[in-house]
Amino acid sequence: MVTNNLYYVLVFGGTVIFCAGVVCLLRKPFYGLATSAVKQLDIILDDSINEVEKDRRILRNLWVLLKLLFITIFVLGVLTMCAALPAYIYTSYPTNRKADLSSFYFYLSMFLGSFSLLLFRKKGDYSYWSKLLHTLILDNYNLGKFLFERATRHLKKDEYLAEKPFVIVTGLARSGTTALTNLLFDEAVFHSISYANVPFLLAPNLWKKIYAPTTSKKKERAHGDQVLFSENSIEAFEEYFFKVFLNDSYIKEDCLLKHEIPKDVLVKYRMYQTLFKQNNTTIYLAKNNNFLLRYESMLKSDKMLKPIFIFRNPLDHAASLLRQHENFLIRQKEDNFVLEYMNWLGHHEFGLNQKYFLFDNQFKKPKSNTSELSYWLAIWSDYYSYISEISNTHKIYLVHYEDLLKKPDELKRVLTFNLGIKLGNRSPEPFTPNPQVRKNMGEPDNNLLKKANAIYTNLMSKKITLSD
Prior knowledge:
Blueprint: H1 5-25, H2 27-44, H3 51-92, H4 104-114, H5 128-138, H6 141-152, H7 157-160, E1 166-170, H8 177-184, E2 190-191, H9 204-210, E3 219-220, E4 228-229, H10 239-245, E5 255-257, H11 263-274, E6 283-287, H12 295-301, E7 305-311, H13 314-334, H14 336-344, E8 356-358, H15 373-390, E9 397-400, H16 401-406, H17 408-419, H18 446-460
Parallel strand pairs: 1-6, 1-7, 2-6, 5-8, 7-9
Antiparallel strand pairs: 3-4
Helix pairs in contact: 1-3, 1-4, 2-3, 2-5, 13-14, 13-15, 15-18
């Protein structure tokens, strides 16, 4: 008896079983196998530990790697047998049925069965493979350093040691730093870090050879604040550089510490800035909400720094922080990768791993919890009181959030004059934030609010002045 249509149905079903098994049973073992293999390389590249400790870590990780490899091979073998079993039994009893392994219909059955993979769609903004790639690159600092050295080995000293200005836009999260950075950015004037550089943040030109998006289709970011972005949009990604080369030394369990930047790291930072250049005439522009932690240290060694600080009404700002905190608590609980991603990039502004800034030992963590408006008002007060303090002795540019909203063109014109940088005439994209609503947030501590308002009044007296 020749092979009939039932055989091809069984081949189709076996393919479905195999695909479903791979997705459901091999997802975690393969993920662990891949990350352990790259972790092994990261350990080998680690120059900060002695050979005895390195050997110990290699052997310990090797055991994990071999265990996961065995599990992967075993599960793959079992799945293959389960997938082939129905068709094998059919062709074995009675024995005069043939097993077709080469005809068009055999391959068509397998091809159609593989479409079952479409049933397992990604959850969230990142696919399984995207998450794996991000983990392999961003979670291995020594590999990152190796890629950075490879990326910068051909740089000449006059390229990165020349006294060239660079601009940093900073402020407490939710102050309007993204909108202000977008207002300033013009590719004819600036170069910066974009979403397209992720996850190869320390070797962007290497990644560009593999992945160079040309589409500019925009979508709303996870904050749900009507701020749109595309693969080519610039964002706060340079913090990863400091995390890697300072080895997270300033990141503690509940806070981020003010810190000094060693001279060798500052030289590497200048080298890092050049990696995003399109030509030799553009200026480095970055958004970094953690920049205040190292501002004074960096200013000692680099007088060409041009910092722009943005601030907004403390109560509105605290309410916005609270809303985003609650938003990301939900997102991070639904998808742990969101939490990992924010940790890798040094975003501890809100969510499950929220940390406050510690500029000196006098600051005390607020007694209120993160679900209360008073907590975020205390965070605001400490952050901006420090800015108010340094503005007495350092030349900084203070931008008011309302000026950004109401007079973006005038603000850009005045900043052009103050920075001494000729900006293009590109019209800014309209930015209309969501209406400010403070429902079910309660009332903040009155004394805390008075303190915040006093700081706000002081900042208002020092901000960049626009024409009426």
